[in-house]
Specification:
Length: about 400
Amino acid sequence: MKVVVVGSGGREAVLAEVLGRTAEVVVTPGNPGIPGSVTTPAEELDADLYVIGPEAPLVAGLADRLRAAGRLVFGPGADGARLEGSKAFMKDLVTRAGVPTARYGTFHAVDPAVAFLRSLPAPWVVKTDGLAAGKGVLVTNDLAEAEADVRAKLGGQAFGDAGRTVVIEEGMTGPEVSVFAVCDGDDAVVLPPAQDFKRVGDGDTGPNTGGMGAYSPLTWLPRGFEEDIRVRFIRPTLAELQRRGIDYRGVLYAGLMMTDAGPKLVEYNIRFGDPDSQVVLVRLTSDLAALLAEAAAGELRSSATWSDDDAAVLVVAAAEGYPTAPRTGDTIQGLDDAASVPGASIHAAGVVADDHGRLHTAGGRVLNVIGRGPDVATARATAYEAVARISWPGMHHRRDIAAGQPPT
C-alpha cells in the first residue's frame, strides 16, 4: 500500500514511522527531519490512501476535494470537521447526542457572556469558537481575568474572527485523558488512552500550549474504559452526525475529564492529537495502514492490538519564547547522540535544514523525544536521557512529564 500523509509536524513524523511498518509512505509537505518528505501537493500525488494530519486542511475541505477525485481518504469532510472548527457546533451536537459534558453557553455579545460567567462557580472556562492552534482556551479561578478574556475575544483583539463567538463552560476538575477513536461513519475502534500536559511549565504552570509531553498506557484507569467510551461517547456522536447527514470517516479525538461523576467530554478534535496520539501510535502492534484504510472505506473489520508491557513517554523540546514568541534559527546539537539511547526515538517537528543538512529550529515545538520501555517509569527515564543529549540556545522542556499517574 502507498500512503500519503498530509502535514509537517511531529504528529506526521510518527504517523509516517508507524504507517511505514507495512506501507510505503510519502509526507507532504513534511519537514527536513521526516524521511519521505516531498513538496508536491497531496492532490497531485497518487496513492492508495491519504491520511490528513492537521485540523486546518480538514476544516478547509481537503478531504472533500480528494474524495471528489476518487481518492480513499482518512479524515472527515468539512461538514464533520466543524466538530473542531466550531466549538459551539460541537457542544450543541454532543448535547443533543446525550454525551456527558459540561454545562455551557454560546455568546456573541459581551454583556450576556459576562452575566453567564458570573452565574457559574470557579473555575471558569472561556473558549474561542474557531480554530486557534490550541491556544484559544482560558481556564482560570480569577473572575476578572475571565471577564477580560471574554472582552478581548469578542472584541477581536485576541483571535480576530475566530474569537468573535465564545463558548463559556462550567469548569470541571479531575485528570484529563485523551482517547482516539478510528471511525468508519457507523462505528469505531477505540485506541489505548493517553494523557498529555498542556501547560508550558512544570507543575502545570504558565500558559497553555499545543502540548509539552504525553504518556501511555494509563494504568490507573478502570478495566473496560475504552469500551465504555465507545458506547457512551463515540457511538452516540456518530449517530448524531449521521442524523445530520454527515458521514464521519476519520479520528474522533475525545478530550475527557475524569470527574467525580465519571468521564465527561471536554471537547472533540478531528485529528490525531499532537503529542498525545504519538505515544499511542508507537505502541500499536497491529497494522495501522490497514485499519485506517478500512475506516476510510466505511467498513472497519480489524481491531487494534498493543502490548501491555510496552509504555511510551514523550517529551517536547521547545524553542526559547514558546508559546508566545518562539525564537527560530538556532542550530540543533546532539541529535545522533540522543538517537543512540536504547529505546529512544527523535521526531522532528519545527525544523529546517541548511545546505549541509544540519537541522535548525523553525517553530515553537521543535522536537518530540519518545522513550519506550516495559513500564512508564522506564520509558520516562529513557526519554529524559535522550533529551539531556540535545541542545540549542534557549531550548526548554518540562521535567515532570509522566512523573505522577495521574498528575495533580
